[in-house]
């Protein structure tokens, strides 16, 4: 049960709100049940506003916040009715996770889409995932997807938390331009069939190199767990299995690198089609 006192916008209590911010940073269950997440830093704050996320509360320190754009956006958000708390530098440092306290942070409402609401034609492509070992690799994947115009991530099951602070940090704000869908394999199979999607699985035993494959429109890339790869159930969803060629001693790449290679190859092929 979420403690809603920290989100009483009639009278924000500083200590309670700070406690909520710290809990959102550390506690995935609290993030899941409240459907909120926490961000800190000028870049994240600007990107959240640029991408029209709903801000629950802005926390800032007048004395620490030096960036003119961020100061302007705090004032503008306050005029628009977003609750704001002006903290002392000491109070702000209680919630700052950057080495140098930026002076601005926010409690933000998570944004999810339903599988039935999304189109495989949105963006460059979608990435489907079920398990990820490293939050850093997941953030890197989001950063790359954002860079090439990817639509977002289809998350199978409940294991992955895209709003983990380590994911947000490693995404370098790329997360805020991505859509997220949570579903299961059965629903995903039905959606893929309905839209006649080409599901491409990344696998070392694929029968064609990623540079030789002709990625069609409405591509969904399915990436398996870093060590185990695609499960039999995941492979059943894939029309094609494509491999990354390797000639050295390495027998695998981490999720961030492998996914980024695939995304840029899809981007290259798509750009070639548009020029042609």
Features:
single chain, 276 residues, alpha/beta, 60s Ribosomal Protein L30, Chain: A, Alpha/beta knot, seven-stranded parallel beta sheet, four-stranded mixed beta sheet, 18% strand
CATH superfamily of the largest domain: SPOUT methyltransferase, trefoil knot domain
Taken in chain order, the helices and strands follow as HHEHEHEHEEHEHEHEEEHEH
* Distance between the first and last residues' Cα: 55 Å
Assign an overall shape: elongated
- Mean pLDDT across all residues, rounded? 93
Strand residue content: 15-25%
Helix content: 25-40%
Strand neighbour order, sheet with most strands: 7-6-5-10-8-11-9
Biggest sheet details? 7 strands, parallel
Keywords: Methyltransferase, Transferase
Pfam family, one: SpoU_methylase
GO molecular function: RNA binding; RNA methyltransferase activity
Domain MRM3-like substrate binding: 26-106
Describe it:
- By secondary structure, the protein is of the alpha/beta class.
- It folds into 2 domains: 4-109, 60s Ribosomal Protein L30, Chain: A (2-Layer Sandwich), CATH 3.30.1330; 115-275, Alpha/beta knot, CATH 3.40.1280.10.
- The chain has helices at 14-26, 28-34, 42-50, 68-79, 89-93, 135-148, 165-171, 185-195, 232-237, 255-275; strands spanning 36-40, 55-60, 84-86, 104-109, 126-129, 152-156, 179-183, 198-202, 208-209, 219-222, 240-243.
- It has a 7-stranded parallel sheet with strand order 7-6-5-10-8-11-9, with helices on both faces. It has a 4-stranded mixed sheet with strand order 1-4-2-3, with helices on both faces.
- Strand 5, helix 6 (135-148) and strand 6 (152-156) form a beta-alpha-beta unit.
- Helix 6 crosses helix 7 and helix 6 packs parallel to helix 10.
